[in-house]
Each structure stands twice: as structure tokens, then as C-alpha cells.
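hiii, so i know i said id send this last week but things got crazy w the move. better late than never?? heres the sequnce for the chain we talked about at the cafe, plus the structure i predicted for it. fair warning i was half asleep when i ran it
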Amino acid sequence: MLPNCRICQSSHSTPWLRRGGWSYRHCGACSAVWLDPLPAEGWADGFYDRGYFAGGGRGGYDDYLAGETQHRINARARLAIAQRFGAAAPALWVDFGCAVGFTLDEARRAGFTVLGVELSSWAREVARERLGLPVHPTLAEAQREISGQAAVVSMFQVLEHLPDPLAALEQVHACMRPGGLLLIETWDRGSLVARMFGRYWQQITPPSVLWLLDRESLASMLERAGFRVTAVLRTSKRLSLGWGLGLLAEKLPRSLAAPFRFLERSRISSLGVSYRLGDLVTIVAVALGGSGDVLG
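okay and structure toks below
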């Protein structure tokens, strides 16, 4: 029996790609791609340690805290999307995968009541100590505190890192009031740039990235978890030029990577640039289960 897809439970999967000793499988039923084998529960804290956020490789960041300006620009853009779809302070906003809390802090400045969930103990402590944010280590702990109360839940580039994304979305749904707004920022495996780059697409980063999803698999998963998709938006984000160049260098064959490594070490690496290649999307969905205003 082949491994079951955790999104749709189908056993109709085939090998999809192998890289550096890691393998991905493709589900023939819902089109999701996942890392095989998926890591055991509790793996995240050891993986997403300080090194992941500060030069430890593994598809992480050279210095996450040094990029605060860019992270806050992204946070304000995300806040604008939420408000465009009806989010209004002082509603409760829960950010799952909040890292050190820049998005939550921007939401708090806009008047929202905020709560974070972060699996990384290092990032969680930075959010608590540096920004004074309330942050839980797990969704289960957050659910015990705010079950059925969240008006907004955000998951920005976190869904693809979870061993069981469907189970996580079901927990998210339990945290939300009917009509609440869910924002998911993630990568679209079906996008033109992903198909053009193929095995060299920047998002294929095992073992950090566990799931490679497209619009079909995302919609299927959200429906199963009790949500209705209302919009899929192509999304841009700000990032440091050095981080982007380094990521490209990691993906390309060594013969093609040298110019990117050179530029990564140059003065221009600190510049902020806008990423607009069309493979990053924001899914806007509504939690089903009752009547009433979406965020009233």
C-alpha cells in the first residue's frame, strides 16, 4: 500500500522528485506534493532554532531580525488585505506561525487584539521579550484559550511547513467564530514560474518545505476543514536582494550559481526588492458554521 495523502487520504500517489537524499510524492487525486517520509511530530522546534533564522541554511534566513524593515512592509500589506475583506479592530487576530511577531505587532498598532502561535521556541521568546506579544507554542494551547472567538486567523508562509496541514486547518477552524476571515499566504506549485523552473523552483527546499501545493489542493483542503474560499490573490513581498540571490544560488547547478554568489556578497545585497514572479498567492477564506456578518 502506498502512503496515504494526508489531505485527501488517497493512496494513488507516485514519486515526483528526488533531491539530495530527500523525496517528494505526488497525489493523483488532489494534486498535492509532499515530502516522503514526513517528519515525526515535535520535529519543528529542533529544526526552527536560532540557526534557521540567523544563517543556519536549511532554506532559512541569513538574519531574520536584520530584515525587520522589509518584514514590516510585508506585514502592513497583509493588514491591508485583511481590512479590504472586512477585518476591523478591535477584533481578535491570531497569527499562526508568527515568527518573532512583526505582523502581529503591526496588527496591534492598528487596534486589533492579537495572539500568536509559534512552534519555534527561539522566535517565540523574541516575540514575547522584544515586542511583549502573547504567543502560544501550539494551536491546541491557543484553542483552549480562544475557542470560537477569533475573527481573523493568518497563516503566512507556514502551511507548507506543517506535517499535517489539514489537521492544522481543522484546529484553526475550531479557534474561529463563524464567518471569521482566514488568510493563507503560500506558494502555488501550478504557477507559470514554478512550472518553468521545474526541479529548480526556489520553493523546493527539503526538509524545510514539506508540502508543495497548488490552487486545486489548497481549495480541496480548505473545503474539508470547513472553509469557503472567497478569493485567490497573486501576492508580492519585499525581501533583501542578498537573501533572494542566495536562495537562487542554492537551487541552481554550481556552474550557474557563481554570479549569484558574487552579487550576494556585494554591497547591493542589503537592498530591498519586490518579489513579483506570480508564484506567491494569498488565499482568502471564510469559516463556515453559522450565520451572521463576516466580521461584524
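btw The chain has one domain: 13-287. thought thatd interest u
miss u guys!!
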